[in-house]
Amino acid sequence: MVSSSQFRHHRVVFERQRWAGLLLGFVLWPTGAIAQPLLTSLPTRTARLEVSLGAFDDPVLAFSRISGLTVDSEERMHVLQPMEGVVTVLNPDGSLHRRIGNRGRGPGEFLDPAGIGWRGDTLWVMDAAQARVSWFHQGEHVQTSRFVPIPLERGERIAAQWPMADGSSFAIVTREFEQPAGHPDNYFLIVRAGGNEGILGPVAVLRESFPFRVIVRHSQRTLRLQPVFRDFPLQSTSDSGMRLAIVDRPFGTASEAPLRLTMVGASGDTIYSREYRVGTVPLTDHEWDAGLRGALARSDRPGRPYGLRELKEWLPRPAHWPSATRVVLGLDHSVWIGLAEIPSRAEKEWAVMDENGVPLFRVELPRDFRLFIVSRDVLWGVWQDEFDVPHVRRYRLEEGDHR
Q1: Model confidence, pTM
Q2: 4-397, which class in CATH?
Q3: Integer angstrom CA distances of residue 283 from 228, 321, 336
Q4: Which of the 8 DSSP states describes residue 211?
Q5: Average pLDDT over every residue of 159-180
Q6: Closest of 312, 162, 313 to residue 245, by C-alpha
Q7: Within a 10 A sphere around the Cβ of 130, how many other Cβ atoms?
């Protein structure tokens, strides 16, 4: 067990080590890195749409915002809707099986459910607003557990905490950045805690992804903006709670800078860490201006004393789009990395690796399809139509169609 003072000591040591590995973006215990081919040159496979469930006025399928999606052993879909504080369980044909939970503070109720998964045949739902996890078996609430306490520095908070199969938890510790976007002092911690070993040290220190939350100090003023690009250090836990994937990727640097994937087991040990090459896409002046205008529109305040020209002077301009935008761990421990997401393109490419990180193929999916679950050749996720109505979609990979 690690005491609060020991945890802080480990953190200081970890942050010092971070400076030696800034070119890699984050620091983990030493592992070998193996050169890999260019991900954008992998053979492609075709994903065929099988099911799309969603409607504007249907009492079951009129989904509000969806923050989580998982499936059980019977392929029933569990759809997490934070606005209602409910998990809607659908049969494979789209009919209603049951609803789990309600909005509120009582047992089995949620205020801000932000994650969903399984430990064996027991469903868990993470509620960030109440810093707790609710557990359900066959639709019935059986337990509520608080977030594992983690020593925090001033200004830090636990953004999320996921239970793992061995009883431990992984958490993301964030803080409000007080330096300009892209400053090396802006970083996130991924921490392992709980289980039978108490509070454990950090697993990884990740650099800020420019710009996750723009905070600019200029002329004695602090400007707080919504993201110019909605980007975040990439991580994903497997639905079974066995693994955590961490992806660090180049942003605004060389055209073929490496992308690093590190797989961590539930025990906190690194399973493998590999680098891949991925060609980044140049960011045009027009696209940069459009991103800044969008940030201004989302952050508009009466009497705002700055505009597009000031932002262009104060913010560093990246040269390229982020090379990767999401990572999803499959139920078979395959790794799906979503590559650059360009507004002018209707499709988004996903690079797929096996359980050992070996590249296999690419898949093109609609750019506005949010992938949640992969089970062998079946994909589940969420897509929004032109009226912003969410649809739960299922795709299947065609067999033997590598090109």
Answers
A1: 0.85
A2: mainly beta
A3: 13, 6, 24
A4: T
A5: 79
A6: 162
A7: 18
